[in-house]
Design a protein that fits this description.
This protein is of the alpha/beta class. It contains 14 helices and 14 strands. It has helices at 8-14, 35-42, 45-53, 69-77, 98-109, 125-132, 152-158, 181-194, 255-268, 274-283, 286-313, 342-353, 360-364, 382-398, and strands at residues 23-24, 92-95, 115-120, 136-141, 163-169, 197-201, 230-235, 248-252, 318-320, 328-335, 338-339, 355-356, 358-359, 373-377. Helix 2 packs across helix 11 (286-313). Keywords: Aminotransferase, Pyridoxal phosphate, Transferase.
Length: 409
Amino acid sequence: MVKIELFEVDHWILSRSSTTVKHNLAHSYCLPRSIRDLQQLAGDSDAATEAFSQVLSKALDYGPMKGSERLRSKISKGYLTGSSSDLSIENIITTPGASLANFLVIFALLGPGDHVIVQYPTYQQLYSLPKSLGIDVSLWETKKDEGWKLDLEQLKGLIRPNTKMIIINNPQNPTGAIITKSTLEAIVDVARDHSITIFSDEVYRPLFHSISPTDPEYPPSILSMGYENTIATSSLSKAYSLAGLRVGWIASHSSKVIDLCVNARSYALITVSQIDEYLASFTLSPSVGQGLIERNDTLAKRNLYLVQSFIDKNSSACEWVRPVGGPIGFIRFTRSGKPVDDLELCTALLQKRGVLLVPGRKCFGDGVNFSGYVRLGFGGDTGELEVALDALQLFLQEDYSDVPLSTGP
């Protein structure tokens, strides 16, 4: 029997989703939008009404095996580089969200006896799922004191004869750090030298709120790096605010990779809901998709300022590496220079002030000691964030001294 480790983040949030949660800062997506919001972003109300009315007459068969051609065409435009290696729609398949996309990539391409290298810290699925399938996993660790930057010499030292894949997350969950263009180029050089596949979870792309697209280090998709053995996954859940619209995708320049993933998908779901795909295609039209990203970029910048102000005000108790992408950050809480017990902190904070955060050591602590760290989501409503930060401020003033220090290594 396959032994799958407890998915700590989801278990933590689900087990505490009760009336005691007044202020949810455990989320990792931007403020959810409605279908009416999408219609308003489309601008031309008649055109939007006509677009949605077509759903009523659509025959609900399985649809194309790789997904809606219209949707895949719009997804492919997100990877345009103007070169002959632009992504064909035949090299994209749709999935119900990015988590299922990640699952299929790992399930279809790896097996017992293989070795993978995983950027760390990161989303637990990216290292726990390979382990559950009997794959040997090495964590490519980063540290706060080094700005969560990846060390290329460390990567080279982790490579083995059976290394099949390097797994990265850009922007990164839980830190909001990015892998810059020059670092991506260096990773590709290493992978090409050893014929290793690079798999990049890009679910927070293109929400890079703290680096300009004109910056020479602005991170491109891994698919634009000129290396065939690359895979990218993404969805509409995070940067596009549509977690309830279960549409994600797998994209690769390798037709072999896509064929293997299509075969694996056939065992689990056959195709994606055509209604979801239709709405996703509407979402990725230029006016709607760009409008969502612009809204969320503005929201992230405004809310990031609030969180940074809170951290500056309480610098004796907390610190972070300011996030560059995505609506999340990894904050370290200390007292007298020593990390507090983050699990006790999050438990007491929820009980006393109704604020839900994610404890770092419990939910991201598979390798490195993340004592004192919590993940905070700042992609929600600004007014609600202000109220939550006020509650957190009261906790620091009145209850923080009761939180025990960490006894971990």
